[in-house]
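Title: Prediction job returns without error message
Component: structure pipeline
Severity: low
Priority: P3
Assignee: unassigned

Description:
Job completed but the reporter wants confirmation the result is attached to the right record. Sequence as submitted:
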Amino acid sequence: MIKKLLCALALLITCNTASDSGGEFPLDRAPNRINELTSLQNGAKLFVNYCLNCHSAASMRYNKLNDIGLTDEQIRTSLLFTGEKVGDLMMGSVSVKDGKRWFGVMPPDLSVIARAKSVNAGPTGSDYIYTYLRTFYRDTSKPTGWDNLAYPAAAMPHVLFERQGPRELTTVVTHEHAAPGGKGPAAWERVTTTYDSFGYATSKTEKLANYRGHASTEHKFKALDATRTSAYDNDIADLTAFMTWMSEPIQQKRKQIGVFVLLFLGLFFVVAWRLNASFWKHVK
């Protein structure tokens, strides 16, 4: 029975690893700011101003922000704009009907999005959020005028684009394609597509003779306002930290308790070990 359980566990780990790493956009590592109150407070401000218009955080109340150093008065004057009370849930203003009509789907609740994505989209949910919010680019062929590298064909437009500033994206795809009509050997080509700051795309195709490499896809952003882009990346790190904290506000205390539990178990093991030795030394 134990052998079967171990095999099932190994299979589960293998499947999860393959699902996380197979064919997905590589995630950037999010800065760890979960213990920095100023970052969490800035992230809360950004979340309320830019995310809470369409999304909700129905598992979080405004007064829970006391835990990151905000007083009720600060919450009331800086984060409440439409008559909510400090003890209210953090609810968005978009109805289900309007959300489906505007975006094709109701914007999801973000209360535990960081925990959800840590299971389904790579190393951690923080990495996914951080990467997703930094990989929007203009694309006039999309209904919203925007697309995203981490989540292609996302229904969400880039609501923070003014803070990030204009930039261009260049995508280089090297791939093998069949000969026209299926006659003759397959050939390799490199397709370079550039999306300018207005979302218009230009493509160039280059035939690769005697190519011995492998298929690949590369993306490179070019910031047209480096100062704004740098400030934006800092804001996104703060917003990611807040959303990570919001998904489990108790996580830091949980980790501290875990350390004390392990220390206790270690001390208990030593006591039990010596007590066992003392007991059995008289038994022949």
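Comment from assignee: result matches the submitted record. The chain is about 45% helix and 15% strand.
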